[in-house]
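Q: Could you fold this chain for me?
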Amino acid sequence: MLYFASARFLWLLLLVPVILLAYGFVRYRRAGRIRAIGDERLVRELMPSWSGSKGWVRIILFCLAFTCFVFGLARPLMGAKLAERETKGAEIMICLDVSNSMLAQDYSPDRLSRAKLAISRLTDKLEGDRIGLVIFAGTSFVQLPITADYVSAKMFLNNISTESVPVQGTAIGEAIKTAAKSFSAQSEKSRAIIVITDGENHEDDAVDAARVVAETGVKVFTIGVGSLRGQPIPYQGELMKDKDGNIVVTRLDETTLQKIAAEGNGAYIHAGNEEFGLNPIIDEIRKLEDERFNSVVFEVYDEQYMYFFAAALLLFVIEMLVGERRPKKRMFE
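A: Sure. Below is the predicted structure, expressed as structure tokens.
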């Protein structure tokens, strides 16, 4: 399977038809100027060494070389396979709120998207730690089992939306319990749960759940997403309203999140647009005693860019050697 590490460069391939059309237009204009001088056949006889077909051969070779060069820039990778690897670090379960209130736009572009971006950036910094993901609204389930495979973590993360959990609401306590059950049997000391939510808990006693989980040695951290003054919720092209027709406003419940973190022997952080809060929490988790894990992960892909660059160089050289003139002598003449 071919995978592009820098797929954004593939947009440059749109220049290929533009180059061909531009060259065709130049050839058309040139033919028009020749016809303006006089008889086209007579003019060609006056330039016996010029070859029109070679011009097209050169531009096609150039476009092929440019295509190979773009593929090289996009860094094609091949050869991913499963392998067992020993890692050293902590186990971190992230509980991500996907209720409709996470669509509020007091963060850019909205609360949920900003949280997903922060988690994605976090996976780029992790080394040896194992990460899992629980998503919750009115109920919760494990979106990603605990793993050291950060590539898979990003893939699962990209597919998350407010429609990922069919039951709306905010059951923080259930999410904490679900996360606590998801740690591996290898982990005993370095375990942490990070809850990312606006804190509007409507379903259960999240503070009591954090206390029970903390008694097993798991630290519970909370990140509050949202503003204290409140924000309306965009929904299906308009603002969400209650049954009486009033606009629903979602506010950050810092008090509940602070209590959860206190009972969970963790810490509470109010997420900002620049520093979302995951980095300071990871710094705290780093202070825990590292554990060794045996993990099944995808091996690093084999780089293939050098073959495309080599093909591009060869085609560029051939293009320059072709020229636009006919050979002076024919073989066997």
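A (continued): The chain has a mean pLDDT of 84.
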